[in-house]
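Subject: Glycerol acyltransferase structure
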Amino acid sequence: MAGIFDWARQQVSTRVPKADLDQRDPDYIREQLPGLWLLASLYFRADVRGLDRIPADGPVLLVGNHSGGNLPPDTFVFTLAFSSYFGVERPFYQLAHNLVVSMPGLGSLRKFGTVAANHDNATLALRSGAALLVYPGGDYEVFRPSWERHTVDFGGRKGYVKLARDAGVPIVPVASVGGQEAALFLDRGQWLARLLGVDKAARLKSVPILFAPPWGLTVSDMIPRLPLPTKIAIEVQDPIDADDIAASDDDVINDKVLASLQGGVDALAARRRFPVIG
């Protein structure tokens, strides 16, 4: 059995594109941005606020709560908003799970700056002077049940604090709501990931159970589906200065980030009258 897991792990790792920051293509983003922003505005009724709280230049670590499964509309909307506000020439990268960046047909994500989520890629992006968007909650948070949609939960992960400290960059929390209403998420399926062995073979800690069009009840989120037209609201929170990060331990900064995100999510949720509709 161990041999099977090792083989599967090798197959996944060999298919993950190496982080080549030059794959981000400002010209491609410039061409695609008007049409995609129109789509985001009409379909997801995108509402993004507080972009002026992000430092105008230089490296910065953007830390968000994550929602929407393997088709996260919050990342889609925020990436478009960031590129529109700061211009496509400002380098901006987003970390994503290995399976997402290696899936066939998603090569365009790399042109927008999406790279595999690992410490080396994150460090490379920040050292290049870029803004970097990370979701510490990963698949644990993105597959949480929909009735926990307004709960920020990183699952105890706080390696991003060390990343920011080592790079000497500020952390800017980015709160969002709406993404977990793009489908009805019923269970994270961590037990199922362990049962199938994909937690070891593919670093996949969740095999979620969800209900979404057009397939109805689905196990895993690897089959293309249609996200519901949920309203996505995002608000950037106040930055945490690099000096404060350097002077504090991981737990203190992690608590600050979680409190900032939860406060932002609560405020956005309070303005939301109905699920999906907004």
